[in-house]
Design a protein that fits this description.
The structure is a homotetramer of 360-residue chains.
Chain A (H helix, E strand, L loop, with lengths): L1 E6 L4 H10 L5 E7 L8 H4 L30 E4 L5 H11 L3 E4 L9 H8 L8 H4 L1 E2 L2 H8 L4 E3 L3 H15 L3 E11 L14 H4 L4 E2 L7 H15 L9 E8 L6 E9 L10 H11 L6 E3 L15 E8 L4 E8 L3 H15 L16
Parallel strand pairs in A: 1-2, 1-3, 3-4, 4-6, 5-6, 7-9, 11-12
Antiparallel strand pairs in A: 7-10, 8-9, 10-13, 12-13
């Protein structure tokens, strides 16, 4: 059993960690912090936790645990703070020998200049950018073993990368992509804001961050790695447009990616069947990524760590369109973080997060 | 390991059984029937099942299982058919020595005349009404052990009974109750009907079955048992009004029950604190029923087998109001059915259904 | 043409007034106030107003109107402030000779002690409580003509009163009622609060204000007037329980009222048909209250000033159940306020608010 | 006053016509047909119509109107039938001298071969394809005057065309567009189907018709006209990808269009400000199309005939992105049909459809 801290427990990622870890056989939450809720029990903030079931008198989460300002010493910490605050916390935790999975963006971008351009502040620990392992398990599984610091990917980012990496890895497409992403409102977090007020968000859809969303450079970084690994010459980098949209649902991201197919060795573009075979091969054996036989719906993944990917060739335009979806709070955040933690400790990768989506 | 059939697998209770049993360590689904989907794989009907995770090459649910018309021989069957069809299936299964949890209403009412009045057809196996154990675990836990046939309670019924039984058991209230119940749309099942069409149901709330809902006699039966056990003289039975409402959400039932308090031995009505203490004592040790400290929200229970109960005294009128909520597809149906099955086999009652609600 | 001020225009009642008045042929908004948005154009706060259509170069609402701190002099003002602040504003407006429709609770309760008990502050202008006409048009139509001050009823209150007044007026029921009311989230207003955050409210239903909601004394006051007018002896007042619930939709209130029928002159309780006839007679000629032939759905009234009422006798218990619904922002607030204003000026009562509900 | 028939009144376009025409001062519905509802009153099918308000004893819609199989003789008919059935009805109506606005796709495509390829049946009246005026008022306003037959545009089509026509008309972009469109569920109509069942659609988002949606050739046709008019050489036609998505709301379409900017006369691509000026000029004076100052939300248009368009330059890729939205049942169907009918009769274009969106 490993002891776990949750730093910033009053967030949606915090409470989702509590839900999933309550069923995890190897992690036990022994510390939870949140400045705004110091001194309170977990179930005062999240009353549904009163329903935690005990096994042999023990649960992976004790609803009576008192929230503190600073974490107790634990084996592992999940950091659920906003960027900047997260980095400060991570530095301290690493100094205390705690393994860290950071759910913020602070250690995702390898180039500190890109980070500082997009996040508008000086990175407090740029040296750690080398140490951090990017927590997309399907790409960096080996490196995660024993990693001291995991940078857990963004939600839109995970959806987009799982859709597009196989295409780059197999030289299927031009280095020019458009990603149109639709997210449920929980993606905006638990902090109050008018666009996320029920009466404003319900029955409404809109695009946001049209001048540039911070998930764009993260997608770009990882797709460029995949393209480079596959031999793409991209001296000027990848051309990429990413537009996120808010739609009136609580959970779920659906990304539709538009790309231009390359002509293959036979002098033609591949068919949908050929592309699907390539994708199925690419994800063969992956427990959490599934190539769907029909356009997937976000609801297939509700509350689960699974991602569905659906590639199809638009034969009229020779475009490859890839639809992908997942639960932004699970595979897009907390489930993936636990998947990483399982890998860090050499545990079975699916431990505690194996369930299928709640549907309907 | 017990082998399990699901009879009528294309229903919402069918698919919810698949989801929950996929995580159950002692039950393995080896047979699934549905006339409308004969010959198809489970994941053709429910593509999210492609995400089932295998452990040592095995899962409690194989997405490639072929749906048949008649069930294979198994240890246990969950019957997810409409009433009447369910009874016919149950009779055959029992003859084959299969233990049965019937999710229909066919064996819930002990009085065959009441059944025939409300369900408008001749009961095909009235003798079995004696055999069947009513599957409200909190009441009939002991009887469920080794029971050949379990009549799984209705969803509104479970919500109402868990709210009101402690009050009758403790002689707190008059034998006259009003239950105003609000249900999510999944309660109406997977069959298409205009009121459950998205564009009709969304942003709409209405009352239905105002001339009498079939869950009423079931609530009445069980509350009368509780009242009789507590010594109530109710020669004319309980006076009860039950009005269900549809509200625009997928899952969840919230019932608000209105009753009149009795004067206690001190010549006064009890306080909220006193009532809460009585309720907490009544449900002490129950893994799935929780007396909440604040008005509970259906969402606390989303996807889980838990029920929250909140009693409060309206001091201006000396009424006891009890708010209760649960997930209609889990504690209101499938989760409770698995809880029953666990008890039938002497397994830990919470096996496979211990998780807390998906929230937010 | 009458000039109109909207005091507190950044509220949901403010913007709904802008929407409805943009189609009103006799009222033109010439002043709008809001401390938090001073100096801004209306369409900076509510961009959908850019779509106002001009007729002969004129519209009842100019999207470019600048929001001010204090109102300009106008014929009429709608006050959309929270209680207490509203009363202060009303006093000043009346001194300037402006006719006022106050949408707050400040002038609804005729007994200043009841007001101060429920609203926990000293009423700044108790003398005006006599002057104010309670704006339930169906009851006080005549008094509204030329009234200087209208106290616009609460949203739950309107729904409950329209359901129950005919029953008291016709001596049908005992003076003991339970009102179970379900409201969409816009009823909580535009101010941010966790329970109204989309991810918290969506897929959730709960009861609130169980120790007492401020709409209760208002319902009680008006039902007692109706009962007294009908000759009820109620020395100790009406016995009333009112429980509001939040359900996941933007607009709409559905109230289910439970009462006990009196025995009529024939020594029996009336039938549903008899009660329906009484209700139809009571509301004959009313443009906005309709006795429905089937249980009504809130969505029938979406965006409209209409209310549907559905009485039915529970023959098993001799209870009269009345279901009623309306749009909380229209007949429950702004539409009723305009209806009142039409009556104040002797205009046709339906002017500018005649539309049917947006459905689906 | 013109008399109006609604052919196929039990559809969502049928009931929306009833709602909007109930407020129209010049059109009176004197006939309504629907095979499935013959002999019933309008308000038996749509009970909310009981709330129609009469003016001088008259309303533009009488809720007691009896639905027939064949229409009465009227001045004008709105045809709300599925394709193929619509064409048959249109032919008969034209023979009787009735002016027709057809809401189906039967007369939208000018090339009968394209029609037959996409709709998979022989067109019954190809000669009328020349007669029909495509009902995008902003493009074909003049031709609509006195037109005997109007082909009302598709919902996704209107959203896309209003976003992209100004760009083609001003030579801003390459003839290669991607349109990612998100629609509310009412777009699928009133017929029952599993994907539109509440419990399936709620909290779910997916893409559909990925192998080709019938709105694509319609968008292509009209963009090619716009491009040709602007002097584009497009011998092989426009390259276009259109992907529609279902999102969990009742009404509204949001389209995000992705295009590549052309270099202008100054040897550079235009700025967002320049593009916005061009769009504002293009739509100057349009009563129903508005160039928004911020990304628009579908909810701004709920229940209204307005469309918001928001162009922005992605400076990293020199793409022009245009977000556009409207209510699929109003500007995307019925409101636009009434706008057309107003123009056919030389009435003010905004008559009866001037309202702003219901918001929140």
């Amino acid at each position: 059993m490993k002891s776990v801290s949750i730093i910033g427990v009053t967030s949606y990622t915090g409470v989702e960690l509590l839900r999933l870890l309550s069923q995890h056989p190897e992690f036990v939450v022994t510390s939870a912090t949140a400045r705004s809720a110091m001194g309170k029990r977990l179930d005062e903030i999240f009353p549904q936790l009163a329903a935690v079931v005990y096994k042999d008198g023990k649960a992976a989460v004790d609803p009576a645990l008192i929230i503190t300002e600073e974490p107790e010493q634990t084996d592992l910490a999940f950091v659920c703070l906003p960027h900047a605050a997260a980095a400060e916390s991570v530095v301290k935790l690493l100094e205390r020998g705690v393994k860290v999975v950071d759910l913020s963006a602070d250690f995702r971008l390898r180039d500190v200049h890109v980070y500082e351009e997009w996040y508008k502040h000086i990175h407090p620990a740029p040296a750690l950018l080398e140490t951090a392992v990017y927590g997309l398990c399907e790409r960096y599984r080996e490196r995660l073993h024993n990693a001291p610091l995991v940078a857990n990917p963004g939600c839109h980012v995970t959806t987009a990368l799982l859709a597009l990496i196989p295409a780059f890895a197999n030289n299927l497409i031009e280095p020019d992509v458009i990603i149109d992403s639709k997210t449920g409102i929980s993606g905006a977090g638990r902090s109050l804001a008018l666009p996320n007020h029920f009466a404003e968000a319900n029955e409404g859809a809109d695009a946001y961050a049209l001048t540039g969303h911070r998930h764009m450079p993260e997608i770009k970084q990882e797709l460029e790695v995949a393209a480079s690994d596959a031999g793409y010459p991209i001296p000027n980098g990848l051309r990429i447009t990413f537009v996120p949209h808010r739609i009136p649902m609580t959970r779920g991201i659906l990304s539709t990616s538009y790309t231009n197919l390359r002509v293959n060795a036979d002098g033609r573009v591949p068919t949908t069947d050929e592309v699907r075979t390539i994708y199925k091969d690419y994800y063969a054996g992956e427990p959490f990524v599934h190539v769907a036989d029909q356009p997937p719906q976000t609801k297939w993944t509700y509350g689960s760590n699974h991602c569905f990917v659906y590639p199809i060739v638009d034969t009229r335009t020779n475009r490859l369109i890839v639809v992908s979806c997942l639960d932004n709070l699970v595979k897009g955040a907390v489930g993936q973080a636990i998947q990483c933690a399982n890998l860090v400790y050499g545990l079975p990768e699916t431990l505690g997060i194996a369930g299928v989506g709640v549907n309907p």
